[in-house]
TrEMBL record, chain A:
The keyword Membrane applies. Pfam families: ABC2_membrane_2, DUF3526. This is ABC transporter permease. Keywords: Membrane, Transmembrane, Transmembrane helix. The chain crosses the membrane at residues 12-31, 128-147, 175-201, 207-229, 236-255, 426-444.
UniProtKB/TrEMBL annotation, chain B:
Pfam families: DUF3526. The lineage of its organism: Bacteria, Pseudomonadati, Bacteroidota, Cytophagia, Cytophagales. Keywords: Membrane, Transmembrane, Transmembrane helix. It comes from the Bacteria. The keyword Transmembrane applies. It comes from Marivirga lumbricoides. The chain crosses the membrane at residues 21-39, 129-151, 179-202, 214-233, 245-261, 452-471. The keyword Hydrolase does not apply. This is ABC transporter permease. InterPro entries: DUF3526.
C-alpha cells in the first residue's frame, strides 16, 4: 500500500516540480554557504600575513619611538566561526568577523562595520536556513493542501471510503508518504551541505537538524489540521498560503518593527561623540589632572609619574586616549543594555512564532546571532586592555622597540561558546506541533471521520 | 467594444465582490496592516530627531573649541548623520541596512557605522512592514484571491454561456471584469496614499519635490494594480478550473515575489565577489605608500616636492618659506590619499552595482521588482541615495581637512612643527565660519534616470497586460 502510494505521489507533476525546485534552491544555498566560508577563510588567512607586514612596515618607519609606533599599529582579533555559520549566515555578513584595533580610544574603533552591499542585505542570503524555513513549508503546503480534497474533486473519495477500513488511516498514510519524502529531501540537502562545507558531526549539528525536522513537522501538523476541516482545495490553498505569509513574513516583521521602534539606540551616536570629546578636550585642559584621572584607572602605573611640563609626552597622550573611553562608558554600557534588551524581547516573541524561533535557534547554533557579536565585542575590549597594559609600561619607560617580541603579536582568536538548552530550543516547536495535531484529531472526532 | 457594456460588466463585478464577506475581512486586515505600517513609518522617521540632535551636539562641540592649532581641529573632526527623506515613511528600502553616522577626520575615511541591522537580532532579515511592502507583497495576493475565479467559475457553472448568448462580446466581458477588479484593487490602494498625504502634511514635509515624487509613486502603484488585475483575468480565462487558476496565480506570486529576487541577488553576488574590508583597506594603504609616504624623511616623492618648493621660493630650508611647510605637505598628502580612496571606493560601488545588476534587469520580466526598485528610489531609500550620502560626507571631510591645512599654512609660523599647547594657534572664530555638514537629497530626474530599466519594465507590462486581454478574448471559449 505504502509502496503504491509512494509511486503514485512521486509520479505527480507537483511532486517532481517541488522536489526539483527545492534541489535547485538547495544547491544555490550550498554555493552561497561555500562562498561565505571561502570569503571568511580568505580574510582569516590574509589577516595573519597582513598583520605581520603591517607591523614590519611601521617598525621600519618608527624604530626609535615606541610611543609613535603604537599610534599606528593595529592588532586584529578574529571571530572564529563554526562551518555551521554557512548554513545560517544570520548577522555574520554584517558584523565583522575580524576587527583590528590600535591601543588608542576603543569606542571609536570597535563598532566599525564591515564592507557590505546593502542591497544584498535587503534581499537576504539564500542560505540553507532560508530553504528550510521558507521553501520547505511551501513544498509541504503544495504536497498536502489537497490531500483529501483531490480525492473528492476527482471523484475517488467515495471509492476510498468504501475500500479502506478508515479514511483517517488512509489520509494519515498519504501524509506519512509526504512526510518521509520531505524529511528525506531535508537529509539529502543537509548531507550534501555538510560534505561540501566540511561540517562535522557534533552536538550542534545534531541540534540543527533536529530543529529543522521539528519545524517541518510543525508545518505538516498545521496543514493536516486544515485538511481535516474537509473544505475544498481552493479554500485550503488560500488558507495555508495565508498562514505561510503570516508566519514567515508578517508576524516577524511586525515584531521587528516593534523592537526597532520601542528600543531605539541613540546611545550609539552619543557614545561616538563623547569618546571623541573625552579625548580631544584634554588637549586644552590641565595635563596633570588628565594623568591623575588616568592613574586612578590604573594605580599600578602611577610610578611613571607626571611629566607635565611644557611639550608633548606619551604618558599624557595615552592618558588622553584612554579617557575618551572612560568618559563615554555610561553611554556605551547603556547601548549594550539596549542590545541585550532587544535580544531578549525578540527571543520571547519568537517562542510563539515557529519560523522566528527556528531562525533564531539556527543563528544561535551557528554562532551568527547578535549575542555572538556582543561576546566578540567584549572579547575585543578585554584584548584591547590587555594589549594596552602590556605596552603602557614600555612606552612610559621609553623602552626601545627592540625590547618587544613582535613576532608574538599574531592575530588573536575568539571562539564563541554557548550552552545548548535543548528544552528551550525544541520545546516551542514540539508544543505547537502537538497543538495542531490535537486540533486535527479533535476535528476528526467531531466530524466522526475525515 | 461598447463602453457602456464594459462599464456595466465592471460595475456588476464590483457589486458582486462587495456582496461577499471575505472582501470586508481582507479589507479589514489590510487596513490594520496599513495603520501599523504607517505608525512604524512615522516612528522610524522620527528617529531623525536623534540624528539632528546629535548633529547639533557635534556642531556645538566643534564650535566650542578654543583657539587651537588647526591640525588639532583636523583630527578633532566632526560627524555626519544620515537624515531620512520624508517619503521614507512609505517605503523603508535599504535604510535599515545602511550606516547612520560617520566620523569625519583628516587623513582617514571612516566607515558609516551604526546601521539598524547591526543592532538587530537577525529578525530584520524576515523583512520590515512598511506601507510600500504591504502594497508590493500583499496587494498582489489580494487581487489574485479576489479575481482568480472571475471568468473560470462562470464557465464552470455555465453563466458565461448565458452572458455570451445575451450578446456580450468576449472583449467586453474581459475588459469589464479586468476593470472591475482593477477598481477593487484601487479601492485597496487608495487608503495608503491618503494616509501618506495626511502624514506628510502633519510632518510639515510639504516641498514640491515630495509631492512630485509622491504623485509619481501613486501612478506607479496604480499601474502595478492595473497590470495585476489584467494578468489575473487573463489567467482566469485561460484556466480550465478555478483551482488551476488559483494555483497558477499563487505559484506566480511565489516565484516573482519570494524566490526570484533572493535567488538573482544571490547569483549576482556569487558571480561578482566584492573585496573584503581588509583587502580594500590594504589596497588603499599600498597605493598611498607607493605614491609617496609623507612621514618618511627619505621618500623620493616628497623630497622632490620639497626641493621644487624651496627652489620656487628661492630659499634654503623649509623654515624660511613664507608659509608653514607642514601644512603644505599634509594638504598634498590629503589630496593624494583622497584621490586614491575615491577611485577605490568608486570601484567598490561599481562592484556592488554589478552584484545588483541581475536583479535590476530581472525587473523586465518581474513587475514586482520593477515596482520595488522604483518605490525605493522615489522614497529616497535606495542604494544610489545612500551612495550620495557617502559621497557628500567624503566631500565635506576633504574640504574640512584642506581648510585646516590651509589655515596651518597661512597662520602657523614656518618654523613650528608641534601642534601641542596654546602657543601656535588659530583664532576660534575660524571654526564657526566653517559651515556644518548638510545632506542634500537626489533630484527626481536623477532618481528616475537611474531606475530607467524599472520604469520601462512597468510600461512594457502595462502594454503587455492590455494586449494579453485582447489576445485572450480572441481565443476564449465559453465551455
Amino acid at each position: 500500500m505504502y509502496r503504491l502510494m509512494f509511486i503514485q505521489f512521486i509520479r505527480t507533476k507537483t511532486c517532481q516540480l517541488g522536489i526539483a525546485l527545492a534541489l535547485i534552491l538547495g544547491i544555490i544555498s550550498i554555493m552561497t554557504g561555500k562562498q561565505f566560508l571561502e570569503d571568511q577563510k580568505k580574510a582569516t588567512s590574509q589577516v595573519v600575513e597582513k598583520q605581520e607586514a603591517h607591523i614590519q612596515r611601521n617598525l621600519d618607519l618608527h624604530k626609535d619611538d615606541l610611543g609613535l609606533l603604537l599610534y599606528y599599529l593595529k592588532f586584529s582579533v578574529v571571530n572564529q566561526r563554526d562551518p555551521l555559520a554557512a548554513l545560517s549566515i544570520g548577522q555574520s555578513d554584517l558584523n565583522p568577523g575580524i576587527q583590528s584595533v590600535s591601543i588608542l580610544t576603543l569606542e571609536g574603533q570597535k563598532h566599525d562595520t564591515d564592507l557590505v552591499n546593502p542591497v544584498k542585505l535587503l534581499f537576504g542570503n539564500l542560505d540553507l536556513s532560508f530553504v528550510f524555513i521558507y521553501v520547505f513549508p511551501l513544498l509541504i503546503i503544495t504536497f498536502t493542501y489537497n490531500l483529501r480534497s483531490e480525492e473528492e474533486e476527482s471523484g475517488t473519495w467515495k471509492i476510498v471510503s468504501t475500500m479502506s477500513q478508515s479514511t483517517t488511516h488512509f489520509l494519515l498514510k498519504k501524509l506519512l508518504v509526504r512526510i518521509s519524502i520531505i524529511i528525506l529531501l531535508l537529509f539529502i540537502l543537509y548531507l550534501a551541505a555538510s560534505i561540501v562545507l566540511g561540517i562535522s558531526i557534533s552536538i550542534n549539528s545534531a541540534l540543527f537538524i533536529t530543529i529543522a525536522i521539528l519545524y517541518q513537522l510543525f508545518w505538516f501538523s498545521l496543514c493536516f489540521c486544515i485538511v481535516t476541516l474537509r473544505r475544498n482545495s481552493n479554500f485550503n490553498a488560500v488558507t495555508l498560503l495565508s498562514c505561510w505569509i503570516v508566519l514567515t513574513i508578517i508576524l516577524p516583521s511586525i515584531v521587528n518593527n516593534l523592537v526597532t521602534v520601542n528600543y531605539p539606540v541613540p546611545e550609539a551616536l552619543t557614545t561616538m561623540i563623547k569618546q571623541r570629546d573625552g579625548y580631544h578636550e584634554k588637549w586644552d585642559t590641565d595635563k596633570r589632572a588628565t594623568l591623575e584621572k588616568f592613574y586612578s584607572s590604573y594605580p599600578q602605573l602611577e610610578k611613571f609619574g607626571y611629566p607635565t611640563d611644557d611639550g608633548f609626552n606619551w604618558h599624557w597622550y595615552y592618558a588622553m586616549q584612554h579617557l575618551g573611553d572612560v568618559e563615554s562608558r555610561v553611554e556605551s554600557a547603556s547601548m549594550e543594555n539596549k542590545m541585550i534588551e532587544r535580544a531578549s524581547v525578540s527571543s520571547s516573541w519568537a517562542q510563539f512564532i515557529p519560523s522566528m524561533h527556528t531562525q533564531m535557534s539556527f543563528n544561535e547554533i551557528a554562532g551568527t546571532n547578535l549575542q555572538n557579536h556582543m561576546s566578540f565585542l567584549k572579547e575585543i575590549s578585554r584584548f584591547h586592555e590587555e594589549t594596552r597594559l602590556y605596552f603602557y609600561p614600555k612606552i612610559f619607560s621609553e623602552a626601545s622597540t627592540e625590547t618587544v617580541q613582535w613576532e608574538k603579536f599574531k592575530p588573536a582568536y575568539f571562539q564563541y561558546t554557548h550552552s545548548v538548552n535543548w528544552l528551550m530550543e525544541l520545546g516551542p516547536l514540539v508544543v505547537v506541533s502537538l497543538l495542531f495535531s490535537c486540533l486535527a484529531f479533535f476535528f476528526i472526532r467531531k466530524n466522526q471521520g475525515v | 467594444m461598447r463602453k457602456n457594456i464594459i462599464l456595466l460588466i465592471a460595475r456588476h463585478f464590483w457589486t458582486s465582490i462587495f456582496k461577499s464577506k471575505i472582501l470586508y475581512t481582507l479589507f479589514g486586515v489590510i487596513i490594520i496592516l496599513l495603520f501599523y505600517a504607517a505608525y512604524s513609518g512615522v516612528s522610524y522617521h522620527d528617529q531623525n530627531h536623534f540624528r539632528t540632535e546629535h548633529q547639533e551636539m557635534a556642531r556645538q562641540s566643534w564650535e566650542a573649541n578654543p583657539d587651537k592649532h588647526p591640525h588639532r581641529m583636523a583630527h578633532f573632526g566632526t560627524f555626519a548623520f544620515r537624515i531620512k527623506y520624508p517619503l521614507s515613511i512609505f517605503d523603508f528600502g535599504i535604510e535599515s541596512y545602511t550606516g547612520n553616522a560617520i566620523f569625519l577626520e583628516a587623513h582617514k575615511q571612516n566607515m558609516v557605522n551604526f546601521s539598524d541591522a547591526g543592532f538587530s537580532t537577525g529578525l530584520l532579515r524576515f523583512g520590515e512592514l512598511s506601507m510600500g511592502m504591504v502594497l508590493q507583497l500583499i496587494l498582489p495576493l489580494i487581487i489574485f484571491f479576489i479575481g482568480y475565479s472571475a471568468i473560470v467559475s462562470d464557465r464552470e457553472n455555465g453563466t458565461l454561456k448565458i452572458l455570451i448568448t445575451q450578446g456580450a462580446r468576449w472583449k467586453e466581458i474581459l475588459f469589464g471584469r479586468s476593470l472591475g477588479l482593477f477598481a477593487i484593487a484601487f479601492f485597496f490602494v487608495l487608503p495608503f496614499f491618503i494616509i501618506t498625504v495626511i502624514l506628510l502634511l502633519l510632518e510639515g514635509a510639504t516641498t514640491a519635490d515630495v509631492w512630485i515624487r509622491l504623485s509619481i509613486l501613486t501612478l506607479l502603484y496604480v499601474a502595478f494594480s492595473f497590470v495585476l488585475s489584467f494578468i489575473t483575468i487573463t489567467v482566469s480565462t485561460n484556466s480550465r478550473s478555478s483551482k488551476s487558476a488559483l494555483i497558477k496565480l499563487l505559484g506566480l506570486w511565489l516565484v516573482l515575489v519570494v524566490l526570484l529576487p533572493r535567488t538573482s541577488q544571490a547569483l549576482g553576488t556569487y558571480f561578482h565577489p566584492a573585496p573584503t574590508k581588509l583587502e580594500f583597506k590594504a589596497l588603499i594603504e599600498e597605493q598611498v605608500l607607493a605614491h609617496g609616504d609623507s612621514h618618511d624623511p627619505n621618500d623620493p616623492y616628497f623630497n622632490h616636492l620639497k626641493d621644487s618648493v624651496l627652489k620656487a621660493h628661492n630659499v634654503a630650508s623649509v623654515t624660511a618659506l613664507p608659509f608653514n611647510y607642514g601644512g603644505f605637505v599634509m594638504a598634498e598628502g590629503e589630496r593624494i590619499s583622497a584621490e586614491i580612496y575615491k577611485e577605490q571606493h568608486n570601484q567598490l560601488l561599481q562592484n556592488y552595482r554589478q552584484q545588483n545588476e541581475l536583479t535590476r534587469w530581472l525587473a523586465l520580466i518581474n513587475p514586482y521588482l520593477a515596482l520595488k526598485n522604483l518605490s525605493m528610489a522615489l522614497c529616497g531609500t535606495d542604494f544610489e541615495s545612500y551612495v550620495q550620502f557617502q559621497n557628500q560626507a567624503e566631500d565635506y571631510r576633504y574640504k574640512l581637512a584642506q581648510k585646516m591645512n590651509r589655515l596651518q599654512m597661512d597662520y602657523i609660523a614656518a618654523d613650528v612643527s608641534s601642534s601641542e599647547g596654546k602657543k601656535n594657534v588659530v583664532d576660534r572664530n575660524e571654526w564657526k565660519s566653517f559651515a556644518d555638514f548638510e545632506h542634500d537629497f537626489m533630484s527626481v530626474g536623477g532618481t528616475l534616470e537611474s531606475e530607467a530599466v524599472a520604469l520601462i519594465s512597468l510600461l512594457l507590462w502595462l502594454a503587455l497586460s492590455y494586449f494579453a486581454i485582447i489576445y485572450t478574448s480572441q481565443k476564449a471559449k465559453a465551455i
